[in-house]
Design goal:
Blueprint (H helix, E strand, L loop, with lengths): L1 H5 L21 H5 L2 E6 L6 E9 L7 E7 L2 E4 L3 H4 L11 E8 L2 E13 L7 E4 L3 H13 L8 E7 L11 H13 L7 E3 L2 E2 L5 E2 L4 H10 L4 E5 H5 L8 E5 L2 H7 L3
Parallel strand pairs: 5-9, 7-8, 9-12, 12-13
Antiparallel strand pairs: 1-2, 2-3, 3-4, 5-6, 6-8, 10-11
Helix pairs in contact: 4-5
Length: 256
Amino acid sequence: MKCCKQNQITTIIIGHVTKDGNIAGPRVLEHMVDTVLYLEGERYFAYRVLRGVKNRFGSTNEIGMFEMKNEGMCEVTNPSSVLISEDSEEVPGSAIVCSLEGTRPLLVEMQALTTPSIYGIPKRTGNGIDFNKISLLIAVLEKRGHLNLGNQDVYLNVVSGMKINEPAVDLGASLVIASSFKNTYIPKDTAIIGEVGLTGEIRSVNMIDKRLKEAERLGIKKCIIPENNKKTLKDSYKLEIIGVRNIKEALSAIGI
């Protein structure tokens, strides 16, 4: 490190991570460098996300998305377009949500499947979203939305192998589960944004204008967002914007 700084040499140290997602070995490696970058991706998907988790001289609020091709990793200039299914058929249990990766809004397709449990204890499985988050949202749907999911197996999947943990996808995950359970479809040109509280209220999210502009650019016609966010909108959009205050109003907005 002393040699590199004295001679102004840029050095890249490559290591591996543990199953928990942390850099393996002593933490001194992470402390001594100026920048830590994680290259994330699933084995069976071609997409990779380059995420900054430490930057001594700048922001870590940006990500880069790449696709593995024959010539190597190539930049994906429009990530939202590849994270949404091209299938035009509208089926229950599918919806578009908007997740914010740093300061970059991404439209992602989320799918859910509910089936009656035959083993007594219902199963909850999530791919790309936290298991505890799924259990929490199901509890809110049962208590505040009056949906009887106690005897249902619930499977939730984020398309294209993305991992999203942002609270703004709570409402989309809740409505996609309800859509599968009630066998009603959510139109493909609808995006859902909002955080769900334990009392069933839909809480506002940050950077709503960026999310709506991304949705508008991708051809979305309707957006379901928190009512408090709708009140603070400054720009005009070519979107039908529906503000909801609680989970009941959100369910009514998709016809449940």
